[in-house]
Amino acid sequence: MAKKDIESGIAASGVMGRRRFLQLAGASMVVTGGASAAHFSMTAAHAQGAFKLNVLHINDMHSRVESISAFNSTCSVEDEGENKCFGGFGRLATKIWERRKEIEDAGENVITLDAGDQFQGSLFYTTYRGKAEGEFMNKIGFDLMAVGNHEFDNGPDVLADFIDLVEFPVISGNTKVADGEKLAGKIDEWAILDVGGEKVGVLSVLTPDTANISSPGRNVTIGDDIEYLKEAVTRIRAEGVNKVLLLSHVGFPRDQEIAAQVEGISAIIGGHSHTLLSNTEEGAPAYATMVENPAGKAVPIVQAGAYSKHLGDLSLTFDEDGYVAEATGDTRILDASIEPDAEIEARIAELAGPIETMKATEVGEVAAPIDGSRETCRAQECQMGVLVTDAILARTADQGVTIAIQNGGGLRASIDQGMATVGDVLSVLPFQNTLATMKLKGADVVGSLEAAVNDVENGAGKFPQVGGLKYTLDMNVAPDQGRVKDVMVKEGEEWVPIDPEKVYGVGTNDFMRKGGDGYALFASGAIDPYDYGPGMEEIVAEYLANNAPYQPKLDDRITVIAKN
After folding, report:
1. DSSP assignment letter at 35
2. Contact present, 50 and 317 (Cβ < 8 Å)
3. Contact between residue 308 and residue 47 where contact means Cβ atoms under 8 Å apart
4. Residue 385 half-sphere exposure, CB side, CA atoms within 13 Å?
5. Domain check: are 452 and 318 in the same one?
6. Residues contacting residue 420 through CB under 8 Å, at least 6 positions apart
7. Strands across the sheet containing 503-509
8. pLDDT of residue 6
């Protein structure tokens, strides 16, 4: 980025239709490709000579240090040889450096941003606790990073160590850390970048759900994002900064609500929901998606999927009031056509040495791909959910456990056909959660299912995958108003309606057992709760080995009635 100094701060309208958007932007429309590839160039009447900023951005990389397969797990040597791999820090570095040089050679300004969730997802994080990710981010030259919820998965001290390591600010304005914590004073509220002689303010917010879905601890609080932003935007603009970017980690649906409700944000670069915005991928929301703000201005929103498969490449031109007069760009796929940087690949191989033997350990043959995709496992019965809940039931059968519940968001990858390894299983279950058991009244089981499906529209990770139990999800019913129906439990070989007063043995993971991901009734209603001990990855690996060749399946555990 040309002539840039970093000053760290100390201190629901719908998406616009094309016609309305063009009216607001005073714009011309450029359409490239077919209708599905439409992309907009908003050119204000007096945009000539206005300030232009290019933003290269990623989000939700989740420790994909090495290249990944089509299933978002670590790519095999065979697939690498057949040019079937994507992403990884080697390719990411090559593409960012290439684009940065092109932009700077053209005399334009560029910044590189990460919208959070570098942590958790591979053996590199399990082994190095963020140090590998931080090293490569320094090497690439990131300018800023937002705090994601997974940055707290191993508590605030690990995040503190990461921030000490990296050479750029890590920001989150609605995250407060109490004095006395190792993390205290390390997360900046915002950053003001001096880019080409212009001040660009970058704010950030973290999803308030972090307390439920991660482990920030009692001394870290995350406030309401919109409430915070309404006053923070006013404060940063009072410092003479009118170009205000939001580097958010709240998800694409919430980003749209923020754009519609908070005046003064120029553009939003988001993360958390793993949403790929694209003008070329069929069915993807447009890059950028435009939302009208309270003053009637167009606010572009972008996000670049997840797992390092894409790089966001956004070009913004600002008017004199700091609003976006022109927004162009797209997400760029980091496929085998991009040669990974050799120096970074060599360092990755060096770091991989101590964990390579463990990763390569064979578990058992898999007869067909096991679907563990986010899109499926957070919305309906998925093959990986069946595998994991069956593994829970098998391991706890001698303890009287007859029901298993696994949050869909805890399943982070699919497994391809062939010989599954420890590394494959750890890609699916990277959180080092342990198997937990408890007894729970039928009414609390049903209540937990109801709470766990109340945000399925937004792809919430609490969606319940189940074993030893069946239920119907009626999407015509409002959240928390009886969406879950016809809950059945297996008694012997028979399926019978669940008894609200009967006490059932339930198996889950220790994170959920303690009330994580919104399973509050697990914490408050549990009888004889016990964190049994074996890691979730261990029991799944054992189950695959005992049932090899494993045949993935679905067996009508969850019936979804679509919204009329």
Report:
1. G
2. yes
3. no
4. 31
5. no
6. 362, 363, 364, 365, 366, 541, 544, 550
7. 464-467, 401-407, 503-509, 435-441, 527-530
8. 38
Q: What is the pLDDT of residues 358-369, one digit of tens each?
A: 888 999 999 999
- Quote the tokens at residue 470: 């069946």
- Cβ–Cβ < 8 Å for 496, 397: no
Instruction: Supply the Cα-derived Rg of the chain in whole angstroms.
Output: 24
The number of domains in the chain is: 2
- If DSSP codes are grouped into helix, strand and coil, which group holds residue 98? helix
Can you spell out the DSSP letters for 489-535? EEETTEEEEPPTTSEEEEEEEHHHHTTGGG-HHHHHH-EEEE---SB
Report the CATH number at residue 445.
Answer: 3.90.780.10
Cis peptide bond prior to 288, omega within 30° of 0:
yes
Domain holding 490, by residue range, is: 362-561
Q: How would you classify the pairing of strands 175-177 and 527-530?
A: unpaired
Q: What is the DSSP letter of 427?
A: H
Q: Indicate whether this model's pTM tops 0.85.
A: no
In-domain check, residue 325:
yes
Q: What is the pLDDT of residues 455-503, one digit of tens each?
A: 999 999 999 999 999 999 999 999 999 999 999 999 988 999 999 999 9
- In terms of C-beta density within 10 A (0-12 exposed, 13-18 middle, 19 or more buried), how is residue 489 classed? buried
SS3 353: helix
Strands 469-474 and 558-561: parallel
- Antiparallel, parallel or unpaired: β 220-222 and 243-247: unpaired
Neighbours of 234 (CB within 10 A): 12
Q: Report helix angle 88-105 to 342-360, nearest 10.
A: 160
CA–CA dist 329, 314 (Å, integer): 5
